[in-house]
Structure formats: structure tokens, C-alpha cells
Amino acid sequence: MCGRFGFSIPPRRAWEYFQLADMHGSEIRRNIPPGTDIPVIVLDDDDPSRRVLRFFHWGLVPSWADDPKIGYKLINARGGTAPDKPAFRNAFARRRCLIPADRFYEWEKRPDGTKQPYAITMADHSPFAMAGLWEHWTKQDGEELFSAIILTTEANELVAHVHDRMPVILAPEDYGRWLAPDADPESLRELIRPYPAEGMALVQVSTRVNDPKNQDIGPEQCLLT
């Protein structure tokens, strides 16, 4: 599950780290909820050798959908079954994207009924990319909507402290393979796996993260790496 993440990477850092050729806007947001526009990295339609950063709606709306409200239910998809599910099969085969981030959040249920939020980051605080799918939906009046979804997998040993699932985080050397338009979808299944726990950190954060209006979310205490 991934229902909240952050993208507080300075534009120049994002440009260099993800080897971008173009950025259509850039916004530092430490607390991004579903139903809003999120950064995605796709290949340029005119030149597939170029990676470009765009902003798509978080909540996948398949091209065949009658109502875009379906996107509110489609913020995550299980990576292991996405290639076979009707809602995701075509996107998995043809419309894969990277969703850049520097953290995602999970909430631990405590014995007293409260929930403690945590940020999960890279151990060295570097940016990372979650595996995503995107779709292009058109209303009858011609209005277009580009939307995206985050793929998930079983949690690694670190994330399992707070949740049994986590986003599919791709190694930088696999970015090109994931985006490649001629990639065999079957061969990509091996990338749907937990990111190594030793490369990540679990950080306790303020309950201010519970309200997506709050963007001043910082770490309180690093508990595990």
C-alpha cells in the first residue's frame, strides 16, 4: 500500500538524478495525497530516447472508463497481478512510468488505538523512483485526463515493521528497462519485488502528516536502517 508520499527534490537535482530532458513544472511537496497531480517520468512522444517529467492525476482512469471517479479507487495496484488484470493489463504492456519521490508514509497501529506515522526513505536520503502505470482518458467533450497508479509488492523486512506491503521501488539501473517501449512485459515481472531493506530507513514523523494540507513534515527520530 502507498497512500501518501513526498517529492522534495530540488529541480536541478531531479533533472540530473533521473537524467531528464525536460520538466513541465516542478513543485516541492512533502505530503502528497491521492486525487492530486503527482510527478511522473515518461518517455517523450516525439523522441523515446528522452525522459520527461510531467504531472498526472494520482488515481488511474482506464481509457474505457465511463466515469473518472473510478480513479479514487485505483491509487495502487498489486504488481504481481497487474499484468493480468483487465484494468491494468494494457497500461502494463504499453504505458509504464516512474514516479519520483524521496519518501513514502505508512501508519503503525498501536495497542492504544492511535496510529504513529513513519516516513520510509533511502538510507542515504537519495531520491528514488516507484514503478507506475499511466493512462489517457478522454471525455465526450474532448477534455483529456492523464492519470497514474503506483504498483506495490510485499514489504521488505524494514517496512514490515509498519505495513505488509510497499511500493515497487526500482533500482536506477532498471529505469531505462522499465520505461522501454519495446520491453517484453513478461520480462518486467522480475522487477516487481521488494527493494532491499538494508538500503532504506524508517523514520518517525509528526502526526501533522495526517492532514495533507501540512507540508512542513520533517523527521523526528530515525528508528531503523
Automatic annotation (TrEMBL):
EC class of the enzyme, as a word: hydrolase
Top-level division of the source organism's lineage: Bacteria
EC number(s) per entry: 3.4.-.-
SUPFAM superfamilies cross-referenced by the UniProt entry: BB1717-like
Pfam families: SRAP (PF02586)
Keyword NAD appears in the UniProt entry: no
Keyword terms of this UniProt record: Covalent protein-DNA linkage, DNA damage, DNA-binding, Hydrolase, Lyase, Protease
InterPro entries associated with the record: SRAP (IPR003738), SRAP-like (IPR036590)
Gene3D superfamilies referenced in this protein's UniProt entry, alphabetically: SOS response associated peptidase-like
Xref: PANTHER family: ABASIC SITE PROCESSING PROTEIN HMCES (PTHR13604:SF0), DC12-RELATED (PTHR13604)
Family classification: Belongs to the SOS response-associated peptidase family.
The protein's name: Abasic site processing protein
Organism placement in taxonomy: Bacteria, Pseudomonadati, Thermodesulfobacteriota, Desulfovibrionia, Desulfovibrionales
